[in-house]
User: Fold this.
Amino acid sequence: MAVEHGAVPSPPVETIRTVAIIGLGLMGGSLGLGLKRRRPDLRVLGQARRQETIDDGKASGMIDEGSVNPADILAEADLTILCVPIKVTIDFAVENADVWRRGAIVTDVGSVKGAIVDGARPPLQARGVHFIGSHPMAGTEKSSLYNAKADLYDDAVVFLTEVEADSDSAIATVGAFWESLGMEPHRMPPGPHDMLVARTSHVLHLLSFAAARAYLADPGKSVLATGGGFRDFTRIAASSPDMWTQVFRHNIGNVLAALEEFQGEIDSVRDMLQDGRWEEMWDYLAESRDSRSAWFDQWQQRRGNES
Assistant:
């Protein structure tokens, strides 16, 4: 892929010496811990809104230095990773576009790529800064740096946005960076990516929130009649409402399409139940079980023996 007019060559991964992490929550904090474990050669800088967070990040070994002022660290960074919510990611890139030096690389960890690439890439690109969107398929329902884990990114897939006229060397550098953390990079354009994760992640979080709201109105009674299945299904409903409202908002078309597909499945099951088509129901459940088993066998090969 050619580099657009005004861009400059990106540094190869072996020349990256200083990394800046913007946002020291679960994703940013875990990234810092992972880098310190796997890449002790790197200088890791951090930025957060509160000085207390910077101090705690340094004390826990996530970062070497940090500041609440982005200008204090961005100009020094060869690679910057934005680990903040979607709207904050876009606003941060726009507001600080003049601070990064030409040729630097910026990436992110957001689960929606179209909105971020459309919003963050143009102002950076116009100043000779490379923006390559990333989506590590890693995380938990928890938040804050106090839940950060050094192995959060281990053995996970990471998607890299592939946009026409992006610097191929910049994409390769970001991919090599994630590989150095034990991840498996895959390139995908933003649109297909957002359609895929709407079905495999976003709508499932929405359904989990809905189940928790519908069936836990009286937790005192519900706790008597809920087991592992309900616990597992609603685990991700403990996630951040702020983050997920932004995800749904910025991927609304794909989320609605995925929800419509799910509604079709619910309608089919309801019709089977109402009509008493029990043999058809057995076949439906067996097909679902077999599909899940086939998926899980493949998933285990990538992610280990988690259940």
In short: The mean pLDDT is 91. The longest strand covers residues 18-22. Strands lie at 18-22, 43-47, 65-67, 79-82, 105-108, 130-131, 134-136, 157-161, 184-188. The longest helix spans residues 190-215.
